[in-house]
Every structure is written in C-alpha cells, then in structure tokens.
Predict the structure.
Amino acid sequence: MQAHRPAWIFNRSKIADPHGHGERAVTFVKALKHPKSKLPDKAFELPKFWERIIRRIYGPTDKSGQRIVKTVFIMMPRGGRKTTFGAALALLHTFGYARTEGGQSLAAAAAEEQALLAFDEAQSFIKATPWLKQAAKITESAGLIEHPKSGASLLAISSDGDVQLGKTPVFVLADELIAWKNRSLWKALRTGLVKVQGTLLIVITQAGRGQSNLAFDMYHYAKKVESGGIIDPGFLPIIFETLPKANWRDEKIWKFVNPGIELGFPDLSGLRQLALESGERPADRDDFRQYNLNTWLDYSASPFVDMDIYDKGGEPFDVETLKGRPCWLAVDMGLTTDLTAVLAAFRDDDDGYTVKAWFFCPEENLQARADRDKVPYPRWRDEGWIIPTPGNVTDYRVVENHIRSLCEQFEVREIAFDPAYAQAVMQPLTEDGLPTATFRQGFWTMAPAIKELERAIISRKFRHGNNPVLRWNFENIAIETDKAGNKSFHKGKSRDRIDGAVAAAMAIARASAGQSTRSIYDSPDRPDGLLFI
C-alpha cells in the first residue's frame, strides 16, 4: 500500500510501563468528560489508537522512573482529533499526576485563534468534569487555566503575539506546526524546555508543503528516527501519511491513514464528496491530498516537475573540476530588496547539464525577510548558499564583481541578462568587453528554454548539487500551458521566489544553442513567430 502508519499502534504489541506511568495517564484521560460526547454521562471516549499513543509516550521509563520520551511528533490528517487529544494531555500536566508544583504548561500555535482552540477544548473538559471544575480557575480573557492548589497553570500563546513566557515551561503542545511563520517562539520554547527535568514537547500537525520550513525540518528528522537512521530514544515519531504517487481516490488508503474514520472522525461520506469535487479542481485535489490524506507536497499547486525526480540530480560535485570547460551564465536581477540569482551552466558529455547557482540579497533585516518568505535565509547565509550584500538593498556592485570573478575562473561564453533591473550590472560588464547578451523573459523565448530544462530534469541529466535555495525556487513554480503545449513560469504565491529557476532556464537555453552551434529557431519545439533574445 502506498501509505504508512506506525505498526505498533495497531499490532497489540506490549508497551513497556515498568512504573505504571502509562496506565496512570490513560486513567486520567478516561476520567474526563466532554460536552460533545455521546456516551452516558458525557464520558470521554478515548479511541484505542489514542490510548496506545498515550501509553507509548508515558510508559517507557529509565531505572529512576524518568520518562524516556521528551519530544513527540504526531502528523495525522485533518479530523483526527489531534487538538482534543493534545488538550487532554495538557490537563494531565496541569491537574493530573504529571503536574509539577508551579509548573507551566503551554498551548502554542501560529496564531491566537489556533492556540485558543486547544484552550477551548481544555476548558470544555473542565466544565463538563465536576471534579476538575472544582479544582480549576479559568481566566478566559487571558487564555489561562490554573490549579491554585499546586500553582500549576496552562496558558495559550501564539507566535504572532508579544508573549512573555514567564515561568519555565514543563509541557508544550505545539499545534499545527505547518502554520508557524517564524522560529522566534519555537526557539524560546525549545530552550525553555531544557531548563528542568521531566519536560515534554508534543508537536501535532498535518502534512505541509515544501522543504524550507520549520515543520519539514521536524518531519525530516522524525522520518530519520522512524527509519533507524538516527538513534534517538527521546524522540517519538508518529506519522500517518500517504505517499505522493498513491491513488488518492482509494478508500482503503483513506481508512489506513485516518485511524478514526471507522468511529466517524473524519466523516467518510464527507470525504467522498470532497474527493468527487476534487476530481474536477486540481487545487482542491492537492488540498485533499495534503490535509485529508496527509501527503507532504511541494509548494506549487501546479508544479513544473516532480520534485522527487528533481532531487535525483542532487549529488554533490567539485566546482574545481568545471574550470576550463565552456560555461554559460544567466542573471536574473530581482528588485533591490529581493533575491538576485546568478547561475552557471556547463554542458555534460551525456547531453545533460551541471549547474552552479549563487544567490544575493540584502544583509539588513534578513530575519524579517525569512519571516515574510517562510524560509531560513539566515541559515542559508551561514551555510554559504546566500551571499548577503551590505545595507538594506542589494548592492549590485557585489553581484557585478562576482560575475567578473566567475569570468576569471571559467571559460564563460555568454552572460545572459533579462534587461529588467539589469542595466546597473550589465552595462559596465559590456563596456569592459565581457560577453553579455540580452535574454528577454517573454513567452516566446522562455517556452523553448523551459522545454529544454524540463527535458534535462526528467531524463535525470540536470545536476544541481542539492542547492536548497535553488530547490526552493523550483518548488515555487506554477506552470501555465497554452493550447500548443508551450509552458511559462509563474510564482505560485506572491511571496514566492523563482529567480534561480528562471536563471536555470535561461542558462541552459543558451548552453544548448551555444554548444550545438544551432540556432534556437532550429528546434522543432520552438513556438511560431520571431524570437527576441
């Protein structure tokens, strides 16, 4: 089956519980009541799969009785009652055996309204459970629930607010990590959790899109732990997912990755209606795959190529081995506050290409740009994938000097520029006799360039060295195709950047024409009409 879920949740295998902590946790949760429960006396119905998860979190302990699991990553489709489950555990750490004197539990989310969902669920439990109601003090306006007798508390916080964390957290519920816009709150939570013993972080989320975000970093780590590639007993991955190439209409897969579907959550008839409508609307289909089947997607709803195929070209290469070979440069100049891309393309003996990309952006406010675009610009700078220029706008002199340096290192045959925003860099290079050329990014020029780039990627002959910024640019592409099958690049969203992908198409088009000594007019795939390059 083209889907995956943890086998231990369903195979009735024994879960270690030497000190009875798992049993105590389950007993507490089962003692709760919920106003929406259909059971007698509003008793909370704890599904067997959630019970198994609780036992696996709290049961295994070391010889001293300390819980082994410190971080839990739960990725489950929409409608699996993740927030309800998380709220129940937050109460366990505020009122149950897992609480500590004066301990602070946090329900954290990207936005206040999302954080309040967990708070409201916890509040619903309290109001429906008489013994809990007597022990709790609720301040709705502050998103605060307190246990006055012990000084323990549960506070709802969000990453979009000005939050003072106050006490050191002992329990954190990080809700819907795919929506977190920045890492500031995440850093505060992670660093706070290590201050005392016995803390617990539970991340609950759905599948996301792209790889340049916090949620993917956690998902990627969880997959490595799950596969045994990383040995980390303190990290518990719980992943229900459908693989990208699976038949999204297969109801067996729906039931496999939605463990509560037999109990009515999510509603099977509702899923059938969504699937029926999604068959006619591609954007809705991607939403169905992501949110209801938990398939991790790439950024664009209408991607240029399958990113799994793109990744086949990620083997590292030594740029020194490219010196002395013919080289074609392409430059995509962004606005002074955005990315600028310079990309070198080298023809390989197998009719493929090796490319090397450099990206430039202003140094000032780099974190703000990262928050806006939801990608780790500071980390990319530190790792050398981005070249920061002084000030709050891109210093084009840095770009110009870099191109001159490349011309000294490589046998540069041509430097292709789109005239837009390029004159400040292109003109001094031209005046000094460097081989500059104009490549207008119109439909008639880009369509055959995109065709050649697509051919190289699909045939596994596009070698890019796994540059994460370039990959992000390719993820962001939304494709438009005319009646003749000609394609053009567009941004999937307004904040997306595709500069590196555009530069790749330009460079490869010129490398293809330059290496073969053929005009682009000779290509059978070119559009009709005149081409202006």
Notes: The CA atoms of residues 80 and 526 lie 50 Å apart.
